[in-house]
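Predict the 3D structure for this chain.
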Amino acid sequence: MTVFRHDFRVRYAETDQMGVSYYANYLVWFEMGRAEYFRSLGINYTDYEKQGLFLPVIEAHARYYLPTTYDDKLTIEVAVSEFGKTSMKFVYRILKEDGKKAADGYTLHVFIDRARKPVRVPPEVLKKTPIASLDC
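Done. Predicted structure below.
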């Protein structure tokens, strides 16, 4: 598996006064997709936190193409596009039910320890995570 896909629906609470999905929720959906992606690889992020390793976002970008509204069925596609010594970059694409792109983006993360110092990407993550592109 190089690109992970996860289906979900827009909840009413995720829409704004105009009935359109609020822009900041796309970053929340990116996080949801990222967590599900890790689970699909057998990587439990909580286990890393218990070991004192964390993966904060240090950069985020989203671009919007089509609006989404309450109860729309969406698919988020997630892939890891690159690794640095201490970092990894996730790329995302959100598709509407008809396959049209609603949004895309990326998040850049760095592994840190409890002292908030960068640490190398864990070998298990490197081993289990394929590099892929979404052509965003």
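The CA atoms of residues 93 and 104 lie 4 Å apart.
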